[in-house]
TrEMBL record:
Family matches, as PANTHER family: PROTEIN ECDYSONELESS HOMOLOG, SGT1 PROTEIN HSGT1 SUPPRESSOR OF GCR2
Taxonomy, superkingdom: Eukaryota
Any one Gene Ontology cellular component term annotated for this protein: nucleus
InterPro entries to which the protein is assigned, alphabetical: Ecd
Pfam families xref list: SGT1
Source organism phylogeny: Eukaryota, Fungi, Dikarya, Ascomycota, Saccharomycotina
Biased amino acid composition, Acidic residues: 368-379
Protein name: Uncharacterized protein
Species in which this protein is naturally found: Pichia angusta (Yeast)
Region annotated Disordered, chain positions: 356-383, 414-447
Amino acid sequence: MDYHKVYSYASDELLAPETLCFALFYVGVYKNEAEIRTELAELKHYLDVELRPYVDHYPWHVRPVEYELVDDKHCFLYGELEYGENMDDLWVVASLLFRFTSRSENIYLHLYDQDREFLLIEAAQQVPGWLEPECASNRVWINMRRVVCVPKEYCEGRNLDLGEALAFLQSASYRLEVLGDVTEELVRRKIANYPQEALKHIKMESLLVSEQTARKLVGRPAYVAGAAISHFLEPVRVLGLRLTGQRPSRLVKLNVRVNAIVHMDLQKYGETAAGMGEITDRAIQEEGLGENIDETDFEDFLEQHNKTTEHDPLQRELLRYNVIEKRVEWEQPEQVEEEKQRYDEDMVEKVKQFMNRETDWAGAGSESDGDENEGDESEDSRIRDYFRQEGVDIDEDDFFEFFCREALQLSKEDMEQLRGADSEEQDDDTSHGGGAGEDSPTDDTEVLSNLLASLASSSSPAATLLNNL
């Protein structure tokens, strides 16, 4: 965390991606530096209290928000939140800070991320025409739950550095332009919906993990498990994941709360409590965490952890602080569902295109000259001769079962269903007087398309392979 960013913000230096930065100033016209420092220390205490339930119990996607009291040139609170893929994290913090400004009319809050004045982007239709990116830096502040702006006439046509902005707030805050439409749009679209919107997207998972993993997670903040899983699964979305199924003899039940992104990934790649537990074991091992509780107290701590997690301590605390009026139930995020549906549709379409291409190649091959076919047969013969010399007996049924089990990771039920479909097709061909070599390419395409469509949303290497076609 580097608070010097507030001083270089007007430059072309890029901010860290997917990171929310905030600077909170206390502008007291009649207060000296020591008094301002005292006010900020008190505000930090209140902010600690308001953020405590989230720091302890909220499943941050990367890590909790961090902040500190800075006394360098200016005295202020500076903080950062790396929110990664989860925009809920950003708006949980942004909405809390927005409301926090009502504690004093002397609080001025500056929020920004890699898109700079992201509040203006969220309410772009309501932003004054003159407030363009080349002159917006350090002009937009939050004060008393209002979005206010240093007017156009002050250093017209260019960005402000931090010193210029603070000088205006100190001497001419009464001339600030209140962006009422921007405030109303932000409150309507985002601020008023949080933290409830984020709470809808938090799910409890009951995992079967190794005892060692449980020892490392019990007693730690709630975000640790989900953040580790998210980090572990990042390359998996490109490379795919194969679960070994080789687990310790002793597995224990561990309840964790995760955000919707991690929940969907666990369901996709782990499917079962044991599969999700294996992912968690590997993720925690990769993080290199040490054991967190003594062996003698493990069973009691684990039981208490699972009970506490089941009762949702985050919502319990938010109810106690009157942040929410009633408990919020889990709700599947629309965006995740839409992306999943789009993924499935794209996968099926790719399979159809692939199958059609295979059919076209088969048709083209029937018209090729005999020399090419003879060459292929000769190559096949040499391969078979080699395996016979090595004493390797290749059985088509054994290879089919091996390929389905190891490469496609089909279950026994799926393999039996595929065999059954093939048997029914052969019986149907026989009943209609068809010969063994007269299978319809169209029927083959339809059967395989239906099969592969059922694999489209799976987490197996088959889905990864087909997705790259």
